[in-house]
Write a structure and sequence with these properties.
The chain is mainly β and 632 residues long. The chain has a 27-stranded parallel β-sheet that branches. The chain has a twelve-stranded parallel β-sheet with strand order 4-7-10-14-19-24-29-33-37-41-45-49. The protein has a five-stranded mixed β-sheet with strand order 53-59-58-55-56, with no helix packed on it. The radius of gyration is 26 Å and the shape is globular.
């Protein structure tokens, strides 16, 4: 027994000895890094010394990487943190503002390399609290298996004839490991296409076909650009290019395709999804996709396998607003196509979402011309515009050749969409004789006798008028039709008392077969078998006890100004902000306050029941910010 105890003590001491904290400071003496006085003067020196289990703390300031030979690398099991003044003794004493610790390219040097790279790691490893500035001469970060990048800014990165100027997420099919990009801003990065023929994209974020466990959570992806200088290959998704993974609680805003070079197929301003021969899954949940643009197809979201062949996939867009995007061709909100007839095809699920104020030549809200399945449930499709004659302002389905679209539209509200041409029967939805089943939905000026609705099964359709007051009774519908709206607040499309769609929906399931019990805002929906009342039609459930209010749009746009993590927690919810907090309130989905506090660093939520909650912060300047989290 004494021998075993001795070995246990020796092992414990050995592990403890390796768990060192190494420091980096421009004012250190560059010796062992174990104190701020003895700090290394370069990040690379600390990485060279560190072993798995160590942490590296980096003082605020700017660190310039001069060449590819000196670029930084993830080191397995070594977590690296920025934001320190140089006097801290604990991690939580540092600033959470990533803009105070900058890792940048040398503007006068050779910029064609990544500031931070990774090999394939077996243990999860994190970098946290940095700004990676490409300075318009080089690229940003490469993430492979088991890499976490949290609370960072990646900006001004460039790639010529390549992918993922800001963040490139890759992995190995032989080693399974997650890649987590969280609480970060990826902005103002650029891909230029100048004659090369290749498939790629993602000026902001590129997720390769080998990556099967990528998570993008609570991020802002904005102002990223694909510039089609001359003829090239298939390049799409200026904000994000993804084949498989999860995008949640994120803002994809003002990303764009520019240039109209002949032979260059650059499309998809916001998010580009590429189906594969084997089934892949993409989940977009709780996101805001706004102000993105393309001179060709897909202003906000494009799903396109590009090449000929048979492709599979299961794609879900839930609890998401797609507002004020524009495309000069087809499908400004969502665009789906394929160059080959699909015998089975992929499935697109749109749940609890608002698609509004988008403009395209054809199919302002949703355009689909590929055989496959599309399920639209509990959604609101409004104020979209087609500039073509009979182009279907809201939805446009057209199975090319002998392809047939199998659509199931349930509990969906379609209103206020316009097109060039006067045939009202297909202004809201041009079905083109596809195999659509439309049930428990409300459609403005619906006319089942129109020949284009042949082969369509309809049941319990409510015909809405163009008069909001006597029809859907939206709270404050945008007066702008199509792209160009100045107020993108989804709350405008809440229904109010007396709406003709209240209580006329039906129970419906999500992509996993589970009953949908909350709406876009998190309000509970009734289950008729339990509550003996039926849910409402559209993305919003009317709650008479808490009537809708047109609140101000979220004024906090930088994740660095308020972070809560982890957003899926059993006990502690951490708070990170560079503003002064006056009060914090947590609400359950009924709108009841379950916790109120002035604590500003972390909150114990272990006593809460499992489920989704709203987290509201009131700052000293009386500005507010609302986040969501899930208590396990």
């Amino acid at each position: 027994m004494k021998t075993k105890l001795f070995f246990i003590i020796v092992i414990f001491m050995t592990l403890t000895m390796h768990a060192a904290t190494l420091r980096v400071s421009t004012t250190g003496n560059n010796s062992d890094g174990l104190t701020w006085a003895n700090a290394f003067t370069t990040i690379q020196a600390a990485l060279n010394t560190a072993t798995s289990g160590d942490e590296i703390w980096i003082q605020q300031g700017t660190y310039i990487i001069l060449s590819e030979a000196s670029q930084l690398n993830y080191k397995e099991g070594v977590n690296v943190y920025g934001g320190f003044i140089g006097t801290e003794t604990t991690l939580n004493q540092r600033s959470g503002n990533p803009e105070l610790t900058i890792i940048g390219h040398d503007e006068n040097g050779i910029g064609d390399f990544r500031l931070l790279t990774s090999s394939i790691l077996n243990a999860a490893t994190t970098w946290d609290g940095f700004t990676f500035d490409g300075k318009n001469v080089g690229s940003g970060v490469l993430l492979l298996s088991n890499c976490n990048l949290n609370n960072v800014v990646v900006k001004n990165c460039v790639v010529l004839n390549g992918s993922g100027a800001g963040v490139n997420i890759d992995t190995s099919e032989k080693i399974f490991g997650t890649v987590n990009l969280t609480n970060s801003t990826i902005k103002d990065n650029t891909i230029s296409v100048d004659g090369a023929s290749f498939l790629g994209g993602g000026a902001g974020i590129f997720v390769s076909q080998r990556s099967k466990a990528a998570l993008i959570d609570n991020c802002v992806i904005s102002g990223n650009t694909i510039n089609a200088i001359s003829a090239g290959g298939w390049i799409y998704g200026a904000g994000i290019f993804i084949i498989e993974g999860v995008i949640k609680n994120s803002t994809i805003d003002s990303n764009k395709i520019i240039g109209t070079a002949a032979g260059n197929y650059s499309t998809g301003g916001g998010i580009g999804i590429k189906p594969m021969e084997e089934e892949r899954k993409v989940l977009i949940d709780g996101c805001s996709i706004t102000n993105n643009s393309s001179p060709a197809r897909g202003g906000a979201v494009i799903i396109d396998p590009v090449f000929s062949g048979q492709f599979l996939g299961n794609y879900t867009i839930s609890n998401t607003k797609i507002i004020n995007n524009t495309s000069n061709d087809a499908g400004s909100g969502i665009f789906c196509t394929s160059s080959t007839k699909q015998d089975q095809g992929w499935t697109l699920n749109v749940i609890n979402s608002i698609i509004a104020n988008n403009t395209a030549k054809t199919g302002g809200g949703i355009y689909m011309n590929v055989s496959g399945a599309i399920n639209i449930t509990y959604s609101t499709i409004v104020n979209n515009v087609s500039t073509a004659t009979y182009g279907g302002g809201g939805l446009f389905f057209q199975g090319a050749g002998n392809q047939t679209i199998n659509a199931a539209i349930t509990n969906t509200l379609i209103w206020g969409n316009t097109q060039t041409g006067s045939l009202e029967a297909r202004t809201q939805f041009n079905n083109n004789k596809q195999a659509s089943t439309i049930t428990y939905s409300a459609i403005q000026d619906y006319d089942g006798s129109y020949s284009g609705w042949d082969n369509t099964t309809t049941e319990n359709i409510i015909i809405l008028s163009s008069d909001n007051a006597s029809g859907p009774k939206f709270l404050a519908p945008s007066t702008t039709i199509g792209y160009g709206a100045s107020d993108l607040n989804a709350d405008r499309w809440q229904i109010t008392s007396g709406s003709s769609v209240i209580g006329l929906g039906t129970d419906a399931n999500d992509q996993n077969g589970n009953t949908i019990l909350i709406d876009y805002k998190g309000t509970a929906r009734p289950n008729s078998s339990v509550d003996f009342i039926y849910p409402d039609i559209g993305a919003f459930q009317f709650d008479a006890a808490n009537p809708p209010v047109l609140a101000l749009e979220e004024v906090i746009t930088k994740p660095s100004e308020l972070l809560i993590y982890p957003t899926l927690t059993r006990s502690v919810l951490n708070i990170n902000t560079n503003k002064t907090i006056k009060q914090i309130e947590i609400f359950d989905l009924t709108g009841s306050t379950v916790l109120k506090t002035t604590v500003t660093e972390s909150i114990d939520v272990s006593a809460l029941k499992g489920g989704m909650y709203l987290f509201r912060v009131i700052f000293d300047d009386n500005m507010t910010s609302v986040k969501r989290f899930i208590k396990q």
